[in-house]
């Protein structure tokens, strides 16, 4: 590597870091404005044009406030948890391609920090560190409500990570690539959201649960747990948690865009138009669209009850993920083995058969009632 | 509340009648459809007019006859004060915010019609809870509420309003320099 390569690399690191930070600030502002729209309010209006700088003002305020250590807190873990909340998000964004390759200084440079060969696994590895954040913060605070929040969300995030992994397995089987740039390249004809729609839905739901956003924000359920795992945090460390939450949200949205919505590729008539600018434009447009849907979900759905959350994850999402892996396997393998027509016929037959067996098994597995948690098994009033 | 809803869900599910015979609201709803419908309803709110008032910048006048703000001591048309210093308002006040000191009228130059008038009349707006019981208690309609609500103070002493201040009509909204802070 010459010094030009090093320069390009460092430049990319700085740019990606800065762009993600600015995007997060804007996304927080967007969320507040959109939620305000849903509630016939105007949202922030005072700091900057239509309140754009409110996040900045909030951050500055928190920066200058005191950081309090509770007496019972485990000092080092308590300090480490906020940092752990932010870093994995920034690491995960490294494998997301923002646009096509460009030529600078006679070199072909991808608009992507690191195009590693196991991109998706890297993303999974980084997002699963998010569990430690919540657990460590909850445990080290030495206080009851944070501990409860941490325990709750560790179970939640681990459970939903399984379903998320299953959705990704189906996608990887379908595309045959692990490298992010190859997955984007493979979507030049049709975005994976169409052939892999079930995986897309499962992934969207699980991503919400992974980043602890409403309606899956049981880790910080205000009405039950004060503020959950970050109850004891104040000042800059609290700001780090907020930042980390939104960094993870943006990262999750950009992963959805990359894996299911064709990444930086525009829809068919504008495919490859304006090259780099077009790539960035479509990427961020799709990012905003995904985030808008999540904000809409947040504005609509109430928080799930804990047992229902677990029921939904383990009894619906994971079995469905397994079924969809089977179906994807049939779709991918059978046409190759038996020829297109016969293979497609067999695949459809297998999928229908598996679905039928599953739906017959469902009452048996669930003890005869769709919602069979003992608490809901009350006798109807006579 | 949520138990009720659960029981209703269970009843709905266990209802023996065929779906067509049930009334619309008792038919089972697919959860996916319910969520989609809810999200549609929320999304539609985007196009409604915002209710927010940009308060210190644009002041929306309250309705002219509204009685939501600070008190006012009224006068008769001939200029005499209506207050007769009876202290019924002070007795009625649950927050003990009103201080009245009565005095006999000088027959040569009466302050109010009748025997007595208020020598001093104070309302402490740090205590007042704007319940309006004093207004109900007043036998002569001397004490009423106005629609002036800009009552920010910079010290405890400023929060005590004396008789002279209460006798004057409130200024138009948005003229108090204290309330202009932060624009």
Proportion of strand residues of chain A: under 5%
* Largest interface: pair, residues per side: A-B, 18 and 21 residues
Largest sheet properties of chain B:
3 strands, antiparallel
**Pairing-aware structural class of the strands and helices of chain B?**
alpha+beta
> Please, what is the average pLDDT of chain B?
82
Assembly state: heterodimer
**Strand tally of chain A, please?**
2
Tell me what portion of residues of chain B adopts beta-strand conformation.
Answer: 5-15%
Major sheet of chain A? 2 strands, antiparallel
Rg of chain B, alpha carbons: 28 Å
Proportion of helical residues of chain B: 10-25%
Secondary-structure element string of chain A = HHHEEHHHHHHHHH
> Got a strand count of chain B?
5
Describe this structure in words.
The complex is a heterodimer of chains A (382) and B (183). Chain A is mainly α and 382 residues long. A two-stranded antiparallel ribbon of chain A has the order 1-2. Chain B is α+β, with helices and mostly antiparallel strands. Chain B has five helices and five strands, in the order ααβαββαββα. At the A-B interface, α1 and α10 of A face α1 and α2 of B.
